[in-house]
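Review box. Two proteins, two foldings.
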Amino acid sequence: MSLVRAVCARLVTQQWAPRVVSPLHDVLTDTERMAVLAENPDSYLHVTSDPLALPGALGEDSDSAQVRALRRLLDLGAYQPMDVPAVLVYSMRDAGRDFTGIIAGVGLEGFADGRVLGHEAVQPDRVEGLVRHYERVRARAELVTLFHRDDPDVTELTRRVREKPPVLEFTDAGGIEQSVWQAGPDESEALERHLDRHHFYIADGHHRVAAATRWRERGGRTDSLLCVLYPEDRIVLHAFHRRVRGPVDAPALLERLRGRFDIGRADGPEVDRGSIGLYADGRWHVLVPHRRDALPGVAGLDVTMLDERVLRPLLGIGGSERLEFLPDVHDLAPARRQCDEDGGVLFTLHAPALEDLVSVAERHEVMSAKTTFVKPKPRTGIVLQ
């Protein structure tokens, strides 16, 4: 059987899409998630969120709340069956940029035999939580993001599918314009055939992959995973910055850093590849290592330099609860204010390159947690399988 497969699924209806389709659960902060859950009873977030966070759900059976949320959407007619199995073309327009990929099933065997490679370690407790969710809520609507090398044939086939009117077109609650096209039988077969020639890399969704694999090992009836497949030129990597909760003795830290880095003044958080930004004691600094070897894989990443030369040896921080992760798409002003209030420090990084991710994956290594923040972030609740 081919690795990439047409999906036989339900598609959210035009009427319900703006209210149902939601960001992934783990993309939102707790505050953002609670706001969506409180304001929109139709959001698919009610199916994927921890039910203890649902308004009025405290103390009830966690799993039954999620099952009821899905059953409610089905009873309301929010989804309609696709007429035939097909590959879908999915477009998001975010901040003036078009992100277009292919929604398809990807065989779970590909994640085991090396045709699909990951680059991040997973947290066992998060994986187990997802497995429990999969055992009770049997329909899947969360999309794993994969990418492949650019392919002119796939680009041309995608363009042809997009020449037809979309089967779905809407703007979600976050203002993101989205469109879905259904490929015809010949187009679907051609896209499957061309995509099957590629190796894929996980851009986002390592925990969902691990959970689906484990669920299958325990007897779950699933052979493939819903994915969005993007050409590499559609993937944008952002950095994750690190804030260390205070108090931190900033003068002492800077003195110890001088033994490893040249320290200069900076106007803000932006840094070049190979250096580290630091906000401490109300000022921005830039740290440039005295020595930096061009190493492949994980060893050559800026985040590894931060972990091995600063966080662990100088601050005693590994997986400490004092560490906060901040994607560089967020405004850092609140983090700076927190540092000013509690005496903490903030480290900023340059985003890894896509080739860094590929190098790590092909060497079968894993990056530190929260190394890359990937765009696009496909929405949940568009297709239901």
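Next protein.
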Amino acid sequence: MRLMISAVCLILGVAIVAGNSATSAEQGGDPKYTIKDVMQKAHKGTLLKKVTGGKATDAEAKELLEMYQSMAKNKAPKGDEASWKTKTEALVDGAKLYVDGKKDEGITKLNAASKCADCHKAHKG
């Protein structure tokens, strides 16, 4: 009987901890993606090119938006935080426009906001 009660308590404890971890990440806790993750998959990979080329699936466009939202939660490796916020918000806004069905506006904004040198000069560590 004691073993059964201990097992139930253990399971409940694990469930509570797991639930709190997911909630804190969703509420602005640790970002899901690092800056390096976003650069590798979205910029060095094909994700951004597919979106700006108008050939991304809805799932791919949503993934890009999620990556940019996550990247915006990361701290800039160097440089001014206000600049980082402005640059990452521009990427988020462009991806959001695309996801919301305003593809041409989203593509235009993403093309303007995703110029590597602009961000790397100011923020790359």
